[in-house]
Amino acid sequence: MKRYLLSVSVLFFSLIEPLAAQPTALPTPPNTSPTKPGATTQILPIGRHHGTIYLSWGYNRDWYTKSDIRFRNSTTDDYDFTFHDAKAHDHMSMSDFWKPSNLTVPQYDATIGYMFGDKHDLGIEVSWNHLKYVVDDNQVMRVSGQIRGFHFDRDTLVTPDFVHLQHTNGNNYLMVNLVKRQHLLVGRHLALSAIGKVGGGPMISYTIASIFSSHSEGPFHYEGWVAGASAGLRLEFFRYVFLQSDMQGAFANYTNSRIGYDRQGLVTHHFGSAQLTYALGFNVPL
Fold first, then answer.
1. Could you say which DSSP state residue 102 is in?
2. pLDDT in tens, 35-73
3. CA-CA distance, 270 to 55, in Å (whole number)?
4. Do residues 112 and 93 touch, judged by C-beta distance below 8 A?
5. What Cα–Cα distance (Å) separates residue 168 from each residue in 96, 120, 249?
6. Whole-angstrom distance, CA of residue 113 vs CA of residue 237
7. What is the SS3 assignment for 83?
8. What is the pLDDT of residue 201?
9. In this structure, is residue 27 part of a structural domain?
10. pTM for this model (two decimals)
11. What is the C-alpha separation between 284 and 56, in angstroms, rounded?
């Protein structure tokens, strides 16, 4: 995962490196020649760069690093313990995704952005990445801490009757990204570009969990923050339609996940994620 995150970062900064190499244009000195009496001064129009708004919708696959997950409650119960190197997986839920009523059931991505249309070919976007994170049930891992005064540190088979944890509605990344585009091939009706992004934002997640058979679901709320970078390719057709695929590496830090029927239990953990997205989008030139 560390090697993957490093490769994504190197590719993104290679896209923006040409910006630093461009010389700064010196201002043009004003015309100081004398104006003849009665002459009319002509004011030339200042050119404007009209940008492009774009929207896209797609789906994703996700992979996660192992995570140390801490569970605490000192208000309505007495426990403080940690799962060490817990494994987790995604959940695509692609059954009948093409039906309008099921569009948001799978792991999806919705993006709206704006390309400035300047010489740097930069843009900004807001993306909602709906991922799903499920801690594997019935895995053996090291568990340490205390439960109601009983202290322990040993390998344990963690069953759903003990703890079950999933961010499946979901592990949501709300990100604001800086976008850099680099044209690779441009034809009459087709254009291929490399796309690099870097950004971050809050996680507005929905956690489903149970601890000692005390079950809880949701609601949506702020549960932490995420930062990431991605690199991908965009193929545009007739200027207005495009297909895009990206590989994103992200660091997610959960600081405020609540569990238990009274929501007094606190779960904290962080992990790395790799996300492969594929999307259909539309350009709206201004």
1. G
2. 444 444 444 343 455 899 999 999 999 999 999 999 999
3. 30
4. no
5. 18, 38, 19
6. 18
7. strand
8. 98
9. no
10. 0.81
11. 11
- Is 278 part of any domain? yes
To 10 degrees, the CA torsion angle through 160, 165, 168, 174? 180
CATH number at residue 7: 2.40.160.20
Flag the least confident range among 3-12, 72-81, 87-96. Answer: 3-12
**Residue 124's domain spans which residues?**
2-12+50-285
Tell me: the pLDDT tens digits for 155-202?
999 999 999 999 999 899 999 999 999 999 999 999 999 999 999 999
Tokens describing residue 100? 């309008």
Note the pLDDT of residue 8: 47
124 close to 114: Cβ distance less than 8 angstroms: yes
Tokens 């461009």 belong to residue: 22
Structure tokens at 72: 């605490």
* Domain-embedded: residue 18: no
Distance (Å, whole) CA 231 – CA 15:
9
What is the number of domains present in the chain?
Answer: 1
